[in-house]
């Protein structure tokens, strides 16, 4: 069974020495945003916001001119119901006339408007409009700022979770928001898959296991059937025995059922209760509805752990303070029609995976709403209590898994080897018309190219026998949601006739157009490229005769359908290699592809730039404001500080002791001046003016501060000087004694007389200087500028120190060459002596020298 992965693997270590960037992972939910930062060499964890919260309310708002995020933005909804924007996730990529916008309207007090792209924007009370992408981008920027202040460096790369059911339109909206926020999309990852990565992080799977990740979020419920298996160690693949393969088998989901729907039911109960008791309607009162929404969330959370809860809202409407008691039983009755739906995604996912409940080891419960008793009961009833597992962090597993996957993708970190195979949940088809031939009308061909459950990252090659330009369309096979389009994109393949002509002139036969279609790892379907290729007779290899059967084989491709969809890139590669013995394919000619988005286009580059600029403009404006407030606050604080210093009558304070009456008078005048300026112009001044006033005050205070700093520093600086003075003197005395001895013994002297004389001269100069200025300093009053600076004392002591160090480091003199018989032992003895002064252990060195004289190998050193 699953074994615990050693804890230290949660700590990332450097993969290489190159300069590495941090990676940000964001789990962008309808209710909360969770983020995690991966920085090389640091343990990774969930990113905290400025209030040290681990999850950040997914709300952006404005209180008049101030933009707010998170809890602050959510809290103002009751007062500014048009300026607080939550649940933006349900609006991502949504057409204006769709169920998503309708259900948003049921829970939010914000005003929605239609953009030119047919998507949704929100209108503030001042009339300004912000697209959903722009508002989400603001939140992502906010998270990026948090990450950057945590990382202490710029952060660019981000991996963001999305629900597995997100269509291409919704995925585009996420990527557009990321780009406008100034981040780079490393990848999108389906949230169930991210949770699976988190689950696999601390576990090993010696044999395959199936689990269902049940994720009950605010806006929706997802079930992901996942297989965990060891990575087969075949060939030269260097998968360690700890490597895990995660394969998503199927997903099931309910897009409109989750924690938020339960909040809505609870709010309905409150509205009905209020209207019944007070005989007045409040459902049109946006402020009241926003206040009730907040209270409903709170009461629901209490009812998850208690059987009853009290709702209390002061001055809800008509000056009425609302108070009511709700029981869990009442609440569950109100929402009983939903209960049946809670487990449906599990059944759906199981059916699509072809597995049976018996095959499933556990159902891993995650998501904020998985704490709701009613939801737990529904799942328990569907799968049996024994299968329920609460073994991942319900709130943070997705973001931590995403972070780990992001780290693996970036290849900058050494992480546990976890491989992912994910799927696209929808049938995607390619459509085109057959070539028009004389007499015959072109027919429409629709082929499902990526059936539901196709692995993401799959490429397929389409082969067309064409002479002219043509169109290829990618679309979802069936409508997915009311109001959502099915068409993903339309591509014009251009320049076909010229390319066919060129390649034919170059000697190719049977020219065909090959287009590569891809379902990316992040779940985007696209047409990657289109080329014209053909078969070339290669006389150097096969000679002209052998090409004849080859042409026949190629002709098979264009059958009655005329266009053939070859099954996959691997099979077309096999085709190519099979024919290479007889003929070679020369360089294909690239064709131009003109992609159009007929339905909901992703944002154009120009629109994204505009959005980016709007966001930057607000950021810049806020920065200017922040700097101004800072400058004002610092000036104010400084004025108060100086007043305190001036008003301190005890005259014992350093400020008083080190200042003259005239100086204090001047400061006092300037303080009064700055203060009255602040009173008169403080509210509409420029940042620079606050700074100028502060600078003027600082220049008056600076000499005083300098004095008492020097008074503090002086004893230590003097001590330091005396210390070097003293050790230099000691050294000189000893060195001179040694020299006398050495001269007497006839051994070479370590120092020359000049060296010692020169050093003595420096020392004397130092002493003279020190004595003179210390004497002078004694007569300087505390409130006068010092005549000798501690910095200068230190600098002079340093000169002495350097000279002394240099003498200490001096190598001992070489033994005279003539006494060859005992040269080796003399040398080692001298070495021992010198190093003894460094190590201070004469005995040990002596014994080393003894060894060295006996050991011939040692002597060579
Ligand atoms: C075809 O050949 C002409 C002449 O060499 C060249 O100018 C043109 O770019 C070629 N077109 C394509 C699509 O390769
Ligand atoms: C001077 O330095 C010595 C040794 O570092 C220390 O013991 C002594 O307290 C110092 N005296 C002053 C006045 O800093
Ligand atoms: C420097 O050291 C010598 C010898 O210890 C001493 O006589 C002299 O007063 C010292 N000078 C100062 C300024 O400390
Ligand atoms: C003087 O000689 C002794 C003994 O040889 C030695 O330890 C010391 O380091 C020498 N002093 C100087 C200043 O060279």
UniProtKB/TrEMBL annotation:
This is Transporter. Transmembrane segments: none annotated. It comes from Ganoderma sinense ZZ0214-1. Residues 565-574, 819-853 have a biased composition (Low complexity). One of its GO terms (molecular function) is ATP-dependent protein folding chaperone. SUPFAM superfamilies: Actin-like ATPase domain (SSF53067), Heat shock protein 70kD (HSP70), C-terminal subdomain (SSF100934). Keywords: ATP-binding, Chaperone, Endoplasmic reticulum, Nucleotide-binding, Signal. GO terms for biological process: endoplasmic reticulum unfolded protein response.
